[in-house]
Amino acid sequence: MRKKTHKIRVSSDQIDSAIARARQFEVNDPRVIRVQYEAKEDLVSLCFADGLKISIPRTQLQGLERANQSQLSKIEIVGNGTGLHWPLLDIDHYVPGLVQHRFGTKRWMNEIGRKGGLVKSEAKTQAARRNGLKGGRPRLSVLQNTRR
Q1: What is the pLDDT of residues 95-138, one digit of tens each?
Q2: For residues 28 and 11, is the Cβ–Cβ distance under 8 A?
Q3: How far apart are CA 109 and CA 55, in angstroms?
Q4: Which residues pair with 77 in a beta bridge?
Q5: Which residue of 2, 23, 30, 88 has the fewest CB atoms within a 10 Å radius of its CB?
């Protein structure tokens, strides 16, 4: 039995119209034109088409925590500047997500936050003591009554 094939006919005008619509979104998308790993500072630096440059600590990017310098230095810009790819690690990051401080999956980001909350410091200890002198943290029932 022969498989039926369907042909889609598209005119040049339809193609031009689709390209024009895509260009409207291009203006708002952050596009990377240059990226590099800065070993001395342990940062991944992104240079954008509009002249903006941001640097992200390597340890904050999911998948790059245990990578070595030679693996980190090989970075490809993909998707017309909307993606980054580390071919030696098979790791990808979406540039608009990085701009919005999304450096990994939600689960991975939650784990980073949990670890940060467990860190003990003199400043946290002092803040807890000051809060304790004020009577400590309000009970949940007190908080619910004040929100009404």
Answers
A1: 988 988 888 877 767 776 776 677 788 887 888 788 888 777 66
A2: no
A3: 18
A4: 84
A5: 2
**120: its two tokens:** 């003990």
The two structure tokens encoding residue 8: 């889609």
The residue with tokens 């990994």 is: 104
C-beta of residue 83 within 8 angstroms of C-beta of residue 93: yes
Please give the biggest Cα pair distance in the chain: 82
User: Tokens standing for 42?
Assistant: 């342990």
For tokens 């498989």, the residue is 3
Tokens 């689960």, residue? 107
Dihedral (CA of 62, 66, 67, 69) sign:
positive
C-beta separation of 104 from 91 below 8 A? no
Question: Which positions ≥6 away from 137 have C-beta within 8 Å?
Answer: 131
- Please report which confidence band the pLDDT of residue 141 belongs to, taking 50, 70 and 90 as the band edges: low
Type of residue numbered 11: S
